[in-house]
Amino acid sequence: MDKQIILAVAGAGKTYHICHSIDPTKKNLILAYTHENIHNIENELCDAYKSVPEMTTVMTFDSFVYRHLICPYEPSIAEHFSCPTFISNGICTIDPPPKQIKNAGGKRVINRNYVKKDKLRHYVTNQGQYYCATLSELVLQIKKGRDSLLKRAAARLNLFYDYVLIDEFQDFRKHDYKLIIDLAKQLNRVMLVGDYHQHSVSATNNSGKPFKKGKKDVGYSDFISELQSAGFYVDTTTLNRSRRCSTEICDYVSKKLGINISSCDGHEGSVIWVDDSATEILDNEQIVKLVFKGADKYSFQALNWSYSKGDTVNAACVVLTDRFEQLDNSDFSIQDIPVSTINKLYVAMTRSSGNLYLMKASTFKKVKDLYIKQN
Question: Is DNA-binding given among the entry's keywords (predicted)?
Answer without folding.
Answer: yes
